[in-house]
Amino acid sequence: MVNTIDLPTDSSTSITIRPVVSSKDYKVFVDYQYDLYTSYPNWVPQLRSEVKKVLNPKKNPFFEHGKIAPFLAYDQKGNVVGRIAAIVNGMHLKKYNDNTGFFGFFECNEDYGIAKTLLDTASNWLKEQGLSHVRGPVNPSMNDISGLLVGGFEHSPSVMMPYNPAYYYEYLSEYGFERAMTMWAYYIHYKYARTEKLKRGVNLLYRRYPALKMRHLDMKRFEEDAKNIMDIYNDAWSNNWGHVPMTEAEFAHMASDMKQIVDPKIVFILEDDGYPVAFSLTLPNINMALKHVRNGHLLPTGLFQLLLRAKFGGIHEGRTLLMGVRQSHQGKGLDAMLNLKVIEDLPRDGYFASEMSWVLDSNKPMMNAMEHMGGTPEKEYVMLEKAL
User: Fold this and answer.
1) Cα–Cα distance between 273 and 155 in angstroms, integer?
2) E strands of 78-201, at which residues?
3) Under a CB-based contact definition with an 8 Å cutoff, are residues 185 and 379 in contact?
4) What is the DSSP string of 230-269?
5) How far is CA 296 from CA 5, 25, 81, 240, in A?
6) Residues of 228-249 as b/e, b for ≥16 C-beta within 10 angstroms?
7) What's the rounded mean pLDDT across residues 241-250?
8) pTM for the complete prediction?
């Protein structure tokens, strides 16, 4: 447990760090972000209720194996000037056994001294847990909103993607963080997509593997399809950098949230003789509507704004956030079949563009595929790491 401490920063301001304990503390922790971003027109607010749910051990199954220690920074006048959370991810440690902890929910005023004080606090807490490295930002894991935006600030984030001021990268680098991985968000407008070569290849694949059939997500058996997607994801992504398998409870939690916004016509499951072997998950980019709910509250006017934007064509783009092929079926070109399906079907259902995100910088085949299809690397994100 970290008690209240007063620390000098590199500026002339004395900063008080307080652990978040009470319900009032948690409200302040959540609310701070909405005040900070009032001058950032491209920032899209999460609903405050959703952020609170992520931090609630009774509502977020992450806490079944992980710990989150949030802290707030106050200046001499009692104003909140920053926040951070130190995070232990039990599933990550179980898979990698690398003594790596995480930081997340990082926000601060434009003052390196504040950032340093917050990072010192999180680092010290992680060292108290016996950890030797820290990585982030994650909120609270790689399976949630994570990464730091370092390029593409002129664009609003897509659903479940982060946005932050440019000075965060400067502060984290000055503190000693280095890039552990670069991730890209590719933007494809279907008017400019190049698919002729892709179509020829996919037609050959269907002739070569006649047992392969593509279908949409079936909302009548949503739980069954969601479980199949989880199984494929955990298998397909198991060798990817930073991958941490979702527990059944975590995936069920995520699926329940997604069910509220999913459009089954743009979620595809590829079956081999009836056995699910690959999937592509695209969500409507509801951030196009949430952007106009600036205070993060659905009531009293936010719900009206959200429904109004959604009803009258305010959501005409998607975000393809997950795609996976079972290891037993990798190397056969099934990812090309999924990519073509996304490009061909989304415009028919009113989605004229999609963000493919994210694509790891180490995944050169996928990066090449995106560019050959006419995708543009619109945003750049990083995960950062340092020794404690």
Assistant:
1) 42
2) 80-89, 100-108, 133-136, 138-139, 145-146, 148-151, 178-189
3) yes
4) HHHHHHHTTTSTT--PPPHHHHHHHHHHHHTT--GGGEEE
5) 31, 18, 19, 34
6) bbbbbbbbbbeeeebbbbbbee
7) 92
8) 0.91
The answer to whether residues 309 and 174 touch, using CB atoms and an 8 Å cutoff, is: no
CB neighbours (10 Å) of residue 153? 15
Q: Which of 62-71, 209-218, 259-268 has the lowest mean pLDDT?
A: 259-268
If you average pLDDT over residues 69-88, what whole number do you get? 97
How far apart are alpha carbons 238 and 241 in whole angstroms?
A: 8
**Domain span(s) for CATH 3.40.630.30 in the chain:** 5-146, 188-379
Q: What is the CA radius of gyration of the chain?
A: 21
Q: What is the mean pLDDT of the chain?
A: 91
Banded pLDDT at 43 (limits 50, 70, 90): very high
Task: Report yes or no: 52 and 60 within 8 Å, Cβ to Cβ.
Answer: no
Most confident of the ranges 8-17, 64-73, 308-317? 64-73
Q: What is the pLDDT of residue 93?
A: 98
Give me the CATH topology for the region 5-146.
Aminopeptidase (3.40.630)
What is the pLDDT at residue 39?
Answer: 92
Which of 355, 330, 325, 382 shows the shortest CA–CA distance to 142?
Answer: 382
Residues facing residue 318 across a β-bridge: 284, 354
Phi, psi at 145, each rounded to 5°: -65, 120
Q: Is 380 exposed, middle or buried (0-12, 13-18, 19+ CB in 10 A)?
A: middle
Q: Which of 68, 108, 109 is nearest to 89 (CA)?
A: 68
Q: CATH second-level architecture of 188-379? A: 3-Layer(aba) Sandwich (3.40)
Q: Which two tokens stand for residue 296?
A: 């993060």
CA distance 259 to 198: 31
Q: Answer with the residue of higher pLDDT: 6 or 17.
A: 17
> Which residues are CB-contacts of 326 (< 8 A; sequence separation ≥ 6)?
232, 235, 236, 277, 278
Give how far the C-alpha of residue 179 lies from the chain's centroid of Cα atoms, to the nearest Å: 17
- Sign (positive/negative) of CA torsion 46, 50, 56, 62? negative
Determine contact, residues 369/335, Cβ cutoff 8 Å: yes
- pLDDT of 8 over the 90 cut: no
Q: Is the pLDDT of residue 5 over 60?
A: no
Which of 164-168, 292-296, 317-321 is predicted least confidently? 292-296
